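Hey everyone, long-time lurker, first post.

I ran two proteins through the pipeline my lab uses and got sequence/structure pairs for each. Pasting them in order. The first:
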Amino acid sequence: MPAVRFATNRLLFVGYCVVAGDFLCLAPWLPGWARLLTHLPWPELQTLVAHPLTRSAVTAFGVIHLVWSLHDVDQWAREREQAAAQEAGSVPGSEHPRQEEPAIR
């Protein structure tokens, strides 16, 4: 059961990263972002949030989330490949069997 829970948690985390990454990449450049500015209480904050550098920083944070999700999917695939290879009796990447070194006396 813990393996199923771990896989479910990983799937949920990857899903979160994809959704959050998409939102953070797209939201600063949509018309709704400009409408959001009218609801901010201080003019200085409105100027800061409207600045292209702030929009770019939010987009970069979204890209980080997307890359993180890809990393987790890749890691999950590698772990499954390793587990399948161990069940079959071989380890991926070890085409040549490792030779034991003689013991030093």
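...and the second, right after it:
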Amino acid sequence: MSARHTPGPWFLFGNGHCVGGPSGDDAQAIPTAGVAMCGMSRRSRDECAANARLIAAAPDLLDVVQFFLRGIEGGHIKCAPYIDFDPNAEQLEIKSPAQRLRDVIAKATEGAP
């Protein structure tokens, strides 16, 4: 069984390079628990801060992707296949937006729903 991610909302704290979230069962005693630290010695301060902002938005982004997939699968959102114009590809590939969303969700959740 794979671990599930820390539930959101996530937020920046400290020097803006750390990402925190709810601490779990004992949120009253410890309202913040670290999720990720993006301060890497070979990255600029701006890049570390940008990475931390992206990581902090991850739970919200996953929710939005899952929302749109439910809309597509439920027939509430219509979308057509698209062509990936990869200049290095030997031929054009027609892709399904729903499958792209499923792939992203699987990447974020190790295949869990």
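Reply from user beta_strand_b:
Welcome! Quick read of the second one: The longest strand covers residues 33-37. The chain has one domain: 11-109.
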